[in-house]
What does this fold into?
Amino acid sequence: LRARLRRRFVGGPPGPLAAADRPAPGPTRVLPRLVSTAVGGGPTHVFGVATRLPTDEFAVLVAGPDDGPFFRRFVTAGIETHALTLNRLNPLTLVRLVRLVRSRGVKLIHSHGKGAGLYGRLAGGLTGVPVVHTFHGIHFDYWPPLRRLYLGLERVLSRLTRTVINVSREQEAEGLRLALFTPERSTVVVNGVDADGVTAEAAGAPVSRSALGLAPGDLVMGTVARFDPVKRLPLLIQAVGALSVRFPGLKLALVGGGDKEGRLRRIVMQAGLDSRVVFAGVVESAARCFSGWDLYVSASSREGLPLALLEAMACGLPVVATDIPGHREVVIDGVTGLLALPDDPGDLTEKIRILLEDPTLRRRFGEAGRRRAKEAFSLDATVRGIAEVY
It folds into this structure.
């Protein structure tokens, strides 16, 4: 496969690096690749790791599209950043990535996301540079032919991958069941957050309730999510409607965006809930909104290990989340929040009702969640785990 790719895209075997392009002795050059630098879990994760890896061991340069605020954040942090679109099929993208790897003396490629995973592993095959790939959730809920294509492609690409990083133990178990990688190629590095940093940022520059269109006396449940079917946001809208009589001041705050926003707005309008659902838009450092919320909710059908949920817990918010891999690795049912049956909207609504009615329980869950986020899901532990893989 490597020989074919070289002949097709490069035109022959690679020659030695020119003297000017050879890396100077020193830290190992690592290239994380992203499909987007917009606000989201992947860029947040890469930024946190890239800015904390020991600089005497690793020199990080990032490749990804200039399509969001994280691109500038990487640059401002002093990280060598290259604009490269990795979420569209284009042979020239592979050529550019191969040239970048060679010209900058990259010794390790680390891909995040499907498009980056495709190009990164092909580039590794072409250059002989080892590749690490992180699954931030295993999402394949497409119509059947595309689902089979995706799973088949991942199985092929796993042969070009030195190590697959899974962000939770349950995700690793699922990937092994699907034969997306072999046990000897897999490791688990659990996602983590800088709990102290998140809470300091949230307290230092909070987004007020009034800025979100919320009144001081409102009872607010909120979520941070990409507006994608896997997040099942209509279930939260449905829950608000079902609970509106019991809780007249109940509001739902949706922080995020995506191509499904129009559909969500139509659902809200048709249900007559315009006054109860707030579309807050994409908020950089979404934890700044949490001080005005009473409860964090997530109805997702699939997750890797969601950073927004961890940040909510770090800020002391109690949680109601669906009982799925990723959620149940974070939320201890009855201790830091409540887990709801994933295929039972009524159970999700009931779990939300229990917490809305009991401020003492919310406070107790929030305090326990803050401790758990800080002690069991620290960003420093994540960085150490990734450094060991490197």
